[in-house]
Every structure is written in structure tokens, then in C-alpha cells.
Specification:
Length: about 450
Amino acid sequence: MAEPTLKQRVWGWAFFDWAQQPYATLGLTFIFSPYFAAVATQYFMSLGADAASAKVEAQGLWSTAQTFAGLFIAFTAPFLGAFADMTGRKRPWFWALATIAVVCAASLWGLQPDGTGLIFALAAFWIGFVASESAFNLNNAILPDLGDTEDVGRISGNAAAFGYWGGVLSLFIMLLFFAENDTGKTLIGLSPAFGLDPEAREGTRFVGPFIAIWFAIFLIPFFKWTVDKPDTSSSKVTFGRVLADLRANIRAVGQQRSTRNFLLASLFYRDALSALYAYGGVYATLVLGWSIIQIGVFGIIAAIAAALLTWAGGIADQRLGPKPVIRSAIVLLVIVCSFIVGMSRDSLFGIPLPEGSALPDIIFYVCGAVIGGMGGALYSASRSLMVRHADPARSGEAFGLFALAGRATAWLAPALIALFTYLTQSNQLAFLPVIGLFIIGLILLRWVNPLGEQV
């Protein structure tokens, strides 16, 4: 079989973003997480909790699971990347991780409206999320092989934008044909497709199998056009050798001022961004009282904004470099977080709103567009800046450290949100720590060289 061309390799690499995006768009943010929050809230109320306490318990359960998932990703990513670099073989890992993600996503069907399967579905979602993110981290390590430093920003931005369009399409399909509202109808007034029972919320629960099918089908171009570069040396790759090599590299990074500060900065601002993604749908459900359909429309707006602004961010990255893109995105996300903290159904920054005011809904739609757009641009530009700091021969290990930086404190934002939720008994004030994490990241960027370690 003929070797794939560079154009095919770029498209194959981008298709991973397209294939994986629904796990985040439909699962983490707009369909499954709010459904889980609503089911968990009703479940805790059935055990005797009042509505406010039940919402707190539901959010706390979700954030605790996210904490453990983030920690696992953080401490396995560098080793996985280093092992893949030393063997030159990433495809077996992609096959294994993708299989786990597909099986776990399909299992989400089991979460019943009465709370049956609650803990199983929670575990399945986050195990699948760990597998999906671990594969995504390995996929990032392929980027340096696809272009020079002037091109990777555009390639990264285009791939991320392509992925978001996949999120838009998948969300449209779910809302138009499957996810039902309180009347049992979809966004366009249809009963859920394939005869799914709206009383049992089967339309919404189909999100799990849908993610699984989407992931499996659209990984085909990725596997078809992605090639490995196996290590042909006779030296045996052992756990001890990988670990020793990884330790030496981490010590070396500690001596590299720009790389060290970039990884520290991304540690904080990417943790904050992950919290926004994970709690957007939960916030809309618990604070604004939105239905799955409303959250889905919100998701479409956010995903379209993400696709357009991430593409624009890729162009800006190519012309200005990734660092200005990152800084601008963080500033806008801090503003969004301020609105999230200061807004409720009844007031805005302490100013009472008329009963039934649509202003909170309008503001949150705008916030969703900014979160989607700036979040996409932020991650794409960060991936581009990492290429400038990475040794091309050890890209898997470098992006493993990049993943570690994005996940090492993955427990921090969820844990702080959970802590502030319990301390303040407020779903809005629980987001205060997220603002602090963004600001810390912004400050640390001051000591990051936009050209990497180049002088």
C-alpha cells in the first residue's frame, strides 16, 4: 500500500479531532452532563434531601469523579508519551484507548431517569474520558511531524476548528432527532428517532451509543492515513529505561526557563478552562433551570463560535505567534467567569432583575459563544506553542509533559469548585477559584519566550 501523502497525513491527524469532539461536546458539556446532573438531583431528593442540597450533592459527585480522572491522566500521560517515543509505535495505543472510549460511551445508555445505574454511568463516562484524552494527547505528539514552526499554528487551528464543526453537526443531530424536552419532543417537535421511548428518556440516553458510533466511524481516516515510525534498534524498551529517561527529561525541563514557565502557566489556565467546559451544562441546569433542549441550543451557538474563532485564532497564530492569542483568550475568559459568578436567575451583580427576565439567558448564550471560541483558540495556540518548545525527536514525551501540565492540577479546579460549593452553598460563587487560576496562568506567561527556548 502506498505511503500516505503529507496532505493525507494532515487530514488523518485532523480527523481525530472530528472523531473525538462529540465526547466533549455531547458528553462532557451539553447533553450527558446536564442529564446526569438532573437525574442525580432527583435521586438525592428521593433520598430526602431538599432541592438546594440535592443540587450541591449532584455537582459535588460530578466534580469528585472529574478530579480522579484528571489525576490519572496527569500521571500516566508523560510515561505513555515517553514509551511511544522510544518504541516509535503509537497505533497500538490508539487502538486500545479508542476501544475503551467506545465501550464506555455506549454504556452511558444505562443511566435511567430514576437514578438506576447512576454510579456505573458516572464511572463509565470518566473511564472513557480518560481513554479518549490519553489518545488525544498522543495525537498531539504527531503535530511536529506535519509542518515547520510557521505552519503548525495554522494546522493546529484548522484541525481544532474542524473538530468543532464535528461537534456542531453531532449536536444538531442529537437535538433534531433524539434529545427530548419535557413534552417528549425534540427541538423540531419530533418524537425521538428509532421509536425510542421519551418517557424513559431514551432519546437523551442515546447520546452514549451515538458518541460511540461516531468515534468508531470517523477514526477510520485517522488509522488509514496515520503512520508509525517503529524503532529498528536492537535495544529493548523497558519500564526502567523509560522511567529513567523521563526523569532526566523532567530535570532538563526544570532548567529551561521558558519551557518551565509555559508548562506552569498552562497547568493553571487549562485547568480553569476544563472546569468551564465540564460545568457549563451543569451550571445552566442548576442555576438557570435550563432544559436539555435549551442547553443543546446553547451548545450549538458555542460550538459554531468555537469553530469560527478557533480557525481565526489559527490564522492569528500564524501571523502573530501563539502567545498573543493565548493572552487575549485568557482575558476574555476571565470576563466571562465574572459574569458567571455575578449572575443568577434573579439578579446580575447584586442588581435585582424583573421576574421572568430573559437577560440571564441572553448573557449566558453570549458567555457560551466566548467560552467556545476562546477555549478553542486557547488550546490550539497552546498546542502550537508547545511545538516551539519540544524536541521533534521526543515529541511524544514533550506532549506527555504538556498533558501533565494540563492535568497535574486537574484535581484543583474541581476540588476548589466542590469546596466552594459546600462552603458557600452557591453554585455561582463556586466558580470564584476559576478566575484565580486564569489570572495565575496569565501572570506566568510573562516569562515565556514566544519562540520557545530559541535565543
